[in-house]
Design goal:
Blueprint: H1 2-30, E1 33-36, E2 41-46, E3 52-67, E4 71-86, E5 91-96, E6 102-105, E7 111-116, E8 121-126, E9 131-136, E10 142-146, E11 150-155, E12 161-168, E13 171-175, E14 180-185, E15 191-196, E16 200-205, E17 210-215, E18 220-225, E19 231-236, E20 244-250, E21 253-260, E22 264-267, E23 271-276, E24 282-287, E25 291-296, E26 301-306, E27 311-316, E28 322-327, E29 329-335, E30 341-349, E31 352-355, E32 360-364, E33 371-376, E34 380-385, E35 406-415, E36 421-422, H2 428-432, E37 436-445, E38 477-478, E39 483-488
Antiparallel strand pairs: 1-6, 2-5, 2-7, 3-4, 3-5, 3-6, 8-15, 9-14, 9-16, 10-13, 10-15, 11-12, 11-14, 17-24, 18-23, 18-25, 19-22, 19-24, 20-21, 20-23, 26-33, 27-32, 27-34, 28-31, 28-33, 29-30, 29-32, 35-37, 35-39, 36-38
Length: about 500
């Protein structure tokens, strides 16, 4: 009995001793610590490739887990404490960013902890308006972090601008291998940009990623694309409520122009001139490197206003046709480069009219309301004149039509073909064949109103090519697009 009890006591003590030794060795393994001084970095790796757990304690520290074959597996900024796993060929880089020691604890039998010459992260702190360039120098596509609102411009491996975005919210951003991104702080406070040190390069940049210009009311901005690509330029027009005038030039010739409330424009190798026509500043933005910006003293479009009774002559001095926009009711007479009348009309309301190269048009306002003329500035010559576009008989005397009244018939003939046409006394047959437009009208007037003023052959104020009376038989030539008025007063 005593021997059995003695053997049991010996066995129990032996087992307790083994347990105590095991606990002691385990505590020693997990409690092994590495003290990381302020500003220093350390690298933790697995000795045999099996997973090892690493505990980090400190005020602030950076960390990045990287792999020779897969790049960065995780990175960030830690506070107080965190736990990380390292396996296979991974490396955990830790950097102490505080002014106190950071402790690193792991199983010394499974892990190696050595000092690192490279920090965990590469980072920069951008004040509002400051910029930096982030380049992926790693072996795979990688993520980096932007800590606030920013503009960014993305470049390919040949440093060609591919894309841009204004007022990005920040956070994780992916960057393909060998490419770079320009970042500009658009926040009201400083923001931090950081990435795994082994796979990114961050450099300061003098130019912003995106330009932001505010065009004051009735001010003009010239936008020149100095790149070889086409990019969007955006206009902050509050969902199409603001209005601006624009003219685009291609090879120093006007390409197009008008008024718009579009929020974006694709601009290639052209010059684009914008005038803000609203009472609030117009926000314009686009990629900084692609455009050169200039403030102009003149407007994108010329706007002329005619009061009642006023007239203006407009000459197209360019080598191509251009359009004029009109607001209001007006009269006009249009002339070709030889001074011949090619078109005229009265009572025209708010329209657009094209003027061929080298031709001119005379506009008159015979209404109470003003007439606005809107057109390109550089290719049209505007001149105020003191005679109207048309001569109009506005006689209002009451007339009693009886047998002694003069009754005449007029015919308005327009050539519809591409060939010269001889107008005769009776063009009805040609009208039926579709050669001409023929409009007949009976005119009655008192003898005292339609007087015999004789024959006139001279050009009157440059408005008509000529006029005549009392012809017996004639064959005047009517060119393409021209009109002739014929009246029978025999």
């Amino acid at each position: 009995m005593k021997s059995s009890l003695k053997r049991w006591l010996v066995l129990s003590v032996s087992m307790l001793f083994v347990i105590l030794i095991g606990v002691s060795q385990t505590a020693y393994a997990t409690d092994y610590t590495y003290n990381l001084a302020p500003g220093e970095s350390a690298r933790v790796s697995s000795k045999d490739g099996r997973t090892v757990t690493v505990h980090v304690n400190g005020l602030t520290f950076d960390y990045a887990t990287t792999s020779y074959s897969r790049g960065a597996n995780g990175y960030g900024k830690g506070t107080k404490s965190s736990t990380h796993s390292v396996k296979n060929e991974e490396r955990l880089i830790l950097t102490n960013t505080s002014n106190e020691f950071v402790t690193i604890a792991s199983d010394q039998n499974k892990s190696d902890i050595v000092r690192s010459k490279s920090p965990a992260l590469v980072s920069t702190r951008l004040q509002p308006g400051e910029s930096a360039e982030v380049t992926n120098i790693g072996i795979t596509d990688e993520y980096f972090y932007v800590g606030g609102k920013n503009d960014h411009a993305d470049y390919d491996e040949y440093n060609m601008l591919q894309f841009y975005k204004a007022d990005h919210t920040g956070g994780q951003m992916v960057l393909e291998i060998a490419k770079k991104i320009a970042i500009t702080n658009r926040d009201e406070e400083a923001i931090e940009v950081y990435a795994p040190h082994s796979y990114f390069k961050i450099e300061s940049r003098q130019q912003p990623a995106v330009f932001h210009r505010y065009i004051e009311p009735n001010k003009t901005l010239e936008i020149n694309n100095v790149s070889d690509n086409i990019y969007y330029v955006y206009f902050d027009v509050a969902q199409g409520t603001m209005q601006y005038d624009y003219v685009s030039y291609l090879n120093n010739e006007i390409d197009r122009y008008g008024s718009s409330s579009d929020s974006s424009r694709q601009i290639g190798k052209i010059k684009y001139v914008v005038t803000n026509k609203e009472v609030e500043p117009l926000h314009v933005y686009g990629p900084y490197e692609a455009f050169a910006l200039y403030e102009r003293d003149d407007f994108a479009l010329e706007t002329k206003s005619l009061k009642q009774g006023e007239s203006m002559q407009i000459i197209n001095t360019s080598v191509q046709s251009h359009s004029l926009n009109f607001k209001g009711t007006y009269e006009f007479a249009e002339y070709d480069s030889y001074g011949n009348v090619v078109d005229f009309d009265k009572g025209v309301l708010s329209s657009s009219k094209s003027i061929d190269a080298g031709t001119k048009i005379i506009i008159s306002n015979s209404s109470v309301e003003s007439v606005e003329i809107i057109g390109p500035k550089d290719v049209l010559q505007y001149e105020t004149i003191f005679y109207p576009a048309l001569i109009v008989n506005n006689h209002k005397q009451l007339v009693s039509f009886d047998e002694s009244s003069v009754i005449g018939e007029t015919a308005k003939v327009r050539n519809k073909t591409n060939n010269p046409f001889i107008a005769t006394a009776d063009s009805a047959a040609d009208s039926e064949q579709g050669v001409v437009d023929l409009t007949k009208q009976t005119v009655r007037a008192d003898n005292n109103i339609l007087r015999d003023d004789g024959r006139g052959h001279d050009v009157q104020n440059g408005l008509t090519k000529g006029n005549d009376r009392d012809r017996i038989t004639s064959y005047p030539s009517v060119n393409e697009g021209q009109r002739i008025a014929v009246m029978n007063d025999s």
